[in-house]
Amino acid sequence: ALLDLSGIRQVTGTWMGSTTIPCTYVPSEGFTQQRVSWSLERDSSSSTIFWRDDFGDHILLTKFRGRVSVPKNSPGDASLLIENLEMPDSGHYTCQVTWRSTDNSLITREVTTTLKVVKVAATKPTIRAGQPGLTVPAGASTSLTCEASGSPPISYRWFRSSPAGTALLLGREAELPLPSLRPSDSGTYFCEAENK
Q1: How far apart are CA 19 and CA 12, in angstroms?
Q2: What's the number of CA atoms in the CB half-sphere (13 Å) around residue 97?
Q3: pTM here?
Q4: What is the CB-side half-sphere exposure of residue 35 using CA atoms within 13 A?
Q5: Backbone angles phi, psi at 63, to 5 degrees
Q6: How far apart are CA 192 and CA 196, in angstroms?
Q7: Which positions are tagged coiled coil (predicted)?
Q8: Going by DSSP bridges, is the β-strand pair 10-14/106-118 parallel, antiparallel, or unpaired?
Q9: What domains can you pick out in the chain, each with its CATH number?
Q10: What is the model's pLDDT at position 125?
Q11: Whose CA is closest to 101, among 7, 2, 167, 191?
């Protein structure tokens, strides 16, 4: 049985998001997985970031601790999950797997994937408020929703303009509930959406 690793040439991940760099094979009888390692090459220097052997998983680069993992109990899957992607994570990732056969010989295969980390442009929030100039009868309830698309995570703040020209903070969620409205609730409400 010929063991072979399959991966893909390039993966694109979003800054602050997570991505999986695939590295899989079909388990064959008579071959036991001995080692899995992942190395990263960037700016013409290469370093091992992850190593799995009989003693467990070892993450060799501090900047990847708590951010990288390889599936534990799925035979044939040595894919690398990277979370909270940072711009310097871009580079060439090599997955190397070594098997031991029944006659004790070792077989090693490797596959390299290029990871490109990209930033997604943040867009200005668009506010959906029924229609411009929302009219609601006294005593009724409504809510204002602020929708923003862009790089997650996005935080929201709802304000109301006061006659003095200052803004009063009303809430920190995308949706601002306005129950049992009174005439004094009339005014200008605005939302602010913010990301990193």
Answers
A1: 8
A2: 24
A3: 0.63
A4: 13
A5: -65, -15
A6: 14
A7: none
A8: parallel
A9: 5-118 (2.60.40.10), 126-195 (2.60.40.10)
A10: 56
A11: 2
Say which residue the tokens 């190397």 belong to. Answer: 96
Per this entry, what is the length of the chain? 196
Residue 188 has which token pair? 């200008």
To which residue do tokens 């809510």 refer?
143
- Determine the pLDDT at residue 130: 46
Encode pLDDT of 101-146 as tens digits.
999 999 999 999 999 999 876 555 555 544 567 788 999 998 888 8
Q: Within its chain, how far is the Cα of 149 from the centroid? A: 16
With beta carbons less than 8 A apart as the criterion, state whether 146 and 173 touch. Answer: no
d(CA 133, CA 54): 67
C-alpha gyration radius of the chain: 26
Mode of pairing for the β-strands spanning 175-178 and 189-194: unpaired
Q: What is the secondary structure of 61-77 as a DSSP string?
A: SGGGTTTEE--SS-TTB
Residue 69, pLDDT score: 96
Q: Token pair 């923003």 is at which residue?
A: 148
Parts of the chain with a pLDDT under 50 = 129-130
